[in-house]
């Protein structure tokens, strides 16, 4: 994203004359776009259909919001970035490049902000559920979560339009880095320290009690612990995908030799694509870690017409037979 505010000339295409490099990025980008779009579409469809009516809780709305942001990112931003890499590979000028840059920039900045802020909201909701379980239902309501989601998107869109002002690119980039990475990292670290302390305290209290009335409490703790682990995995993906670009953008402005290095710019371009990886992986994390998402997905599959299910199962069976005969 370092050249997002440049003019018609493509800065990276001009300095990196390596067709194999751009073709590899284009192929990887298209695959990532399809994975992100399909996986998040399936997750959103599962939450929307919700055969068991188990996704009408505040945390589920936050997960749906995160998935919606990642779906938008995969279907628009990741696809357009990969398409631009195709033009770079062909050494061709992308038509309406200013429009494409504006769309990519707006979608990337807004969806990344929504994703990081939603993860913060999920973490704080998790902390409140563990530390204040009695007040949780009356405080963390669906209405308040919906209002929070609206505010998150409004703030994200307003921030994405900052480059249209007279703010210098360097200043805005630093604002972007600290609002999208530094502040979320600090808040998430502080929140999870509190979450682990509260979870350890409640677990200790539950272990000390063997009364029948405490069985429900222990069951809730196991469920909360499972959700904590799930969010931690999502959070880890957030750190892994954000930190590389965070470092390279700082080096771009603080290290003069880095800005003059072709190798550094190649690394910078590759690491900028890391920002999109978590969007493709997050839905699989929920399917892996949260049983109710797996059950809901199976229920949604059963709702499909019989001929569609039959074709899917036939394709799956044929694939398994080919894999076995190939020795894979």
Describe this structure in words.
InterPro entries: GPCR_Rhodpsn (IPR000276), GPCR_Rhodpsn_7TM (IPR017452). Keywords: Cell membrane, G-protein coupled receptor, Glycoprotein, Membrane, Receptor, Transducer, Transmembrane, Transmembrane helix. It is found in: Cell membrane. The protein has 13 helices and no strands. Helix 3 (58-89) runs antiparallel to helix 4, helix 4 (97-131) runs antiparallel to helix 8 (215-254) and helix 7 (169-208) packs antiparallel against helix 8 (215-254). Residues 1-7 and 316-328 have low confidence and may be disordered. By secondary structure, the chain is mainly α. It has helices spanning 11-15, 19-49, 58-89, 97-131, 133-139, 142-160, 169-208, 215-254, 256-259, 262-273, 277-289, 291-303, 306-326. 29% of the residues are buried. The longest helix is centred in the middle third of the chain and has 40 residues, at 169-208. The chain is 83% helix and 0% strand.
């Amino acid at each position: 994203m370092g050249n997002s505010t440049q003019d018609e000339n493509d800065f990276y295409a001009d300095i990196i004359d390596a067709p194999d490099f751009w073709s590899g990025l284009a192929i990887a980008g298209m695959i990532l776009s399809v994975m992100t779009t399909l996986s998040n579409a399936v997750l959103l469809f599962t939450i929307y259909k919700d055969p068991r009516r188990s996704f009408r809780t505040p945390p589920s709305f936050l997960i749906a919001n995160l998935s919606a942001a990642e779906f938008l990112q995969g279907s628009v931003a990741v696809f357009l970035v990969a398409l631009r890499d195709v033009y770079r590979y062909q050494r061709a000028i992308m038509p309406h490049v200013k429009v494409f840059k504006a769309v990519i920039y707006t979608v990337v900045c807004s969806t990344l902000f929504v994703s990081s802020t939603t993860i913060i909201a999920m973490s704080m909701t998790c902390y409140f559920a563990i530390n204040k379980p009695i007040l949780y239902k009356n405080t963390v309501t669906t209405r308040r979560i919906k209002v929070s989601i609206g505010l998150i998107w409004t703030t994200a869109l307003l921030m994405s339009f900052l480059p249209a002002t007279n703010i210098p690119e360097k200043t805005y980039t630093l604002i972007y880095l600290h609002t999208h990475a530094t502040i979320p990292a600090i808040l998430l670290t502080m929140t999870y320290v509190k979450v682990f302390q509260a979870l350890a305290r409640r677990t200790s209290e539950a272990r000390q009690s063997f009364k029948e009335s405490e069985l429900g409490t222990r069951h809730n703790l196991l469920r909360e612990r499972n959700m904590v682990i799930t969010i931690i995995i999502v959070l880890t993906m957030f750190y892994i995908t954000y930190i590389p670009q965070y470092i390279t953008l700082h080096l771009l402005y603080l290290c003069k030799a880095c800005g003059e290095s072709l190798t550094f710019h190649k690394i910078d371009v590759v690491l900028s694509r890391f920002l999109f990886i978590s969007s493709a992986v997050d839905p699989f994390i929920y399917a892996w870690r949260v049983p109710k998402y797996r059950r809901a997905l199976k229920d949604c599959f059963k709702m499909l017409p019989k001929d569609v299910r039959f074709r899917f199962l036939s394709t799956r069976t044929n694939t398994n037979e080919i894999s076995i005969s190939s020795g894979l």
